[in-house]
Design goal:
single chain; mainly alpha; globular; disordered C terminus
Length: about 450
């Protein structure tokens, strides 16, 4: 491909998105540049503090339990109070709790504050996803979610390598660094991001699916948590998301423990896991251009199989480079799964219930963050890491079958038939607010 073609592809990948999206994207990038606790908690507890893999799994599970609680609460806050206030509260409280965790010494104190960190750090997710769905046109959503995921992993690729080296000298510096960068995110949200929550009494946003939005927001029924839980197809997606999350979370809980018990250093793990972020940075945008308008059922089935068997290959890894190769396999699954599944969640969510739907969806990842470390710690301590990797293959197969069954006869998305998808001009639904000005290319 020529240099001109590459430049044109890059412009097409980032053009046409509203300015507010890019500030949200920047906030995500800054936040992930400071990612330390979720990545290095197990190594901190096992190597620096000398606790067992089971205790480390318990603490990380409490971190996940905090996320389970906050996902639902934050989803309701996102719909009732707004996206912006929820983001501000979540990020400011995360900065405080992460800094506090770095100074905890007693096991009970560590576990308690880890629970608090889980609650605060996960509270921003429903608000971010709902705001993105509010401000981005339906035909651009897969691309927007992919770009946001790209920012997450660009920051992660940098922070994983740097934090691995920092951890060899001072874990406290990692905690304080994450707290500082999270506080910067709160400032960005306060200064640059307007509220995006749709008001009732206006027409539904262009992103609403025909079967969810009705003719206008005034005809859309009230959405409570009970509404979400009774939505069978959506809850099926949540259940499958849990299985996929249970697999991917082993990259930050099972893999570091397995490598640590095999004699590798935090720096070795940092380099291996950085491959995940680096590949997503390099491949997310071009791969998204290839899959953007393809059948989501096939994409989710394939990604589930790649995730399960990519982790299963870890059982055969020996040197560091072999671990890195297994990361390459399941990273491709992430690249395909994340924007596809996020687009599906928005497609199934009513306009004025986006916060609650995103909260329940986020809960699937939080529950996985609760279960995965317990699963990893128990299986590694009792039977060895190879049993854990075999289990991921079984989970991936189950998720693939589930996606295939769940998505049969799924009604077409409004974006699939939009003029923009066919190359024509884009027209917003009547009554939809004009998008904010696009960011400069």
């Amino acid at each position: 491909m020529s240099a001109d073609s590459l430049r044109r592809a890059a412009r097409e990948s980032v053009s046409g998105l509203p300015r507010a999206f890019w500030w949200l994207w920047t906030s995500t990038l800054v936040n992930r540049l400071g990612a330390f606790v979720a990545t290095f908690m197990t190594l901190y507890l096992t190597l620096d503090r000398g606790y067992s893999a089971s205790f480390a799994g318990l603490v990380v599970a409490l971190h996940g339990l905090g996320g389970v609680v906050s996902s639902l609460v934050a989803g309701v806050m996102t719909d009732r109070l707004g996206r912006r206030p929820t983001l501000l509260a979540a990020q400011a409280s995360t900065a405080f709790s992460v800094a506090l965790l770095g100074f905890m010494e007693h096991p009970t104190a560590i576990a308690t504050v880890a629970l608090l960190v889980g609650m605060t750090s996960n509270a921003s997710r429903p608000a971010v996803a709902a705001m993105m769905a509010d401000i981005v046109r339906p035909e651009d959503r897969v691309r927007a979610f992919a770009l946001n995921y790209w920012a997450i992993n660009l920051g992660f690729a940098i922070s994983a390598t740097a934090a691995g080296l920092i951890a060899e000298y001072s874990y406290l510096a990692g905690f304080l660094g994450e707290a500082a960068l999270t506080l910067v995110c709160a400032v960005l949200v306060y200064v640059k991001l307007p509220e995006s929550r749709p008001e009732r009494g206006t027409s539904a946003a262009a992103g609403a699916s025909p079967d969810k939005s009705g003719a206008g927001a005034e005809t859309e029924p009230e959405t409570g948590l009970g509404t979400v839980l009774r939505d069978g197809r959506f809850m099926g997606v949540v259940g499958l998301s849990f299985l996929i999350s249970l697999i991917f979370t082993q990259g930050s809980v099972g893999l570091p423990v397995a490598m640590g018990t095999a004699g590798f250093s935090p720096g070795d793990y940092g380099l291996v896991i950085a491959v995940n972020g680096l590949l997503i940075v390099v491949l997310q945008i071009p791969v998204t251009r290839l899959i953007e308008h393809r059948d989501p059922q096939k994409l989710l089935v394939v990604s589930a199989l790649l995730a399960g068997y990519g982790f299963a290959l870890t059982a055969f890894a020996g040197p560091v480079w072999a671990y890195a190769l297994t990361v390459c396999v399941w990273t491709l699954a992430e690249i395909v799964n994340s924007p596809t599944q996020m687009g599906l969640v928005v497609r199934l969510s009513p306009v004025h219930g986006r916060g609650r739907y995103q909260g329940v969806y986020t809960m699937s990842w939080s529950v996985a963050a609760l279960v995965a470390p317990l699963m990893a710690g128990f299986m590694i301590d009792r039977w060895g890491a190879n049993w854990l990797w075999a289990a991921t293959g079984v989970l991936g197969t189950g998720a693939a079958v589930g996606y295939w069954l769940l998505m049969r006869n799924l009604p077409p998305d409004a974006a699939d038939t939009a003029p923009a998808a066919a190359g024509g001009p884009t027209t917003a639904a009547p009554g939809t607010p004009e998008p904010l000005p696009a960011a400069p290319n």
